[in-house]
Amino acid sequence: MVVPQLLLRTEFIDELAGAAAEAQVPFTEVVLLAPTLEDAIVRFQQTQNALAASGIPHPRQAVADEIEAISVSYERLSSLAKQRPQAKVLCTSYGDIEGSYRSLRRMIEGK
Description:
Number of strands: 2
Number of domains: 1
């Protein structure tokens, strides 16, 4: 099972781990993270620009201060990853979907 969400509630992560244990399947906690906060902000802006160029609306209108929201989320996620030693952190490169996928598979497979 893959849960591709920004999960900042440890209780829900623990529930997922419990469900995996109950089903007797492995549970791998992976945190996808940009290498730096600045990189996360640039990625957000690049994605926003790419969507705008294609005519697809970006949900940023729902966030009053997007830089502040990204900063808070990035710091919380970084802190959460440090508090959970079983979590594996995968720093990704923007646009390298295949490379990120390969790295994720290696983490899940324990290689």
